[in-house]
Amino acid sequence: MEPGSRMSRRQFGIRGLQLFGVALLAGCDALSGRDWVAGLLERAEGLTRAVQRAITPRRALAREFTEAERSAVFPGNGTVNPSEPEYQALARAGFADYRLEVGGLIERPATFSLAELRGLPSRTQITRHDCVEGWSAIAKWKGTRLSALLDQVGVKPGARYVVFHCFDALREGGDRYYESVDLEDATHEQTILAYDMNEQALPVTYGAPLRLRVERQLGYKAAKYVRRIELVERFDAIGQGKGGYWEDRGYEWYAGI
Questions:
Q1: What percentage of the chain carries pLDDT values higher than 90?
Q2: Is residue 239 predicted with pLDDT exceeding 60?
Q3: Residue 60 near residue 189 (C-beta atoms within 8 A)
Q4: What 8-state DSSP symbol labels residue 76?
């Protein structure tokens, strides 16, 4: 809020709910093993998500930037070169044999080559990546609109979430990375499967050959090295049932900014 501006009653109430949610979610490690506290934290996250969406119109866009505002350095955090043999073989061949699998609660299960993905409706955007670790960087992304891909395969009525299964594991022999978003974010105008970064084919460091960009959420939602997409009604049986690799380890599922 700008200095000197006044907050309406509605804004004041919403801001209070936001702060209440944050307070509940912060500094609770010592109590997190108690069932009643875990339930309270889960409800607080739901409240935070509800407040976020109450104050942000469904189709509101994340801020986009100019060419001149692109960052000179974009950190390559997390996995920067998956060691899995399947991935390494694809990378050596320039991803010519890469195929994105799409399945789950859809009418027409399919696989897509990079050329086919590039042939679908696309979007180019210059946006800021906000990492939960505290850094931000701006880059230019081009990719397939996820909504266009979903139109191709036909979403069944029971589907509620889109799950992204990835090639990489953050440690040798560990669980492979995965993430999920609901259909509202999946069909948002700025949600894309990026295959270009800064006007070049997406480098391995940043998730080649395909990564998710979901611009209204924190960076850990933007899964890299996507190998398969699955539409589901619920994600209880995937990973540890929290909807994402880091969510299984305590992060919030909805990471709205």
A1: 74
A2: yes
A3: no
A4: -
Tell me how far CA of residue 191 lies from CA of 62, 65, 70, 76, 162, in angstroms: 10, 16, 19, 21, 12
| Cβ 219 vs Cβ 131: under 8 Å | yes
- pLDDT, one tens digit per residue, over 149-165 is 999 999 999 999 999 99
Which amino acid makes up residue 165? H
Q: Tokens for 223?
A: 């899964």
Check residue 253 and give its pLDDT: 97
Q: How far is CA 8 from CA 1, 5, 47, 138, 145, in A?
A: 12, 10, 20, 33, 37
- For tokens 């990471």, name the residue: 255
Number of Cβ within a 10 Å radius of residue 106:
18
**Paired tokens of 185:** 């974010």
Please tell me the distance from the alpha carbon of residue 136 to that of residue 128, in angstroms, as a whole number.
Answer: 7
- The structure's pTM equals 0.81
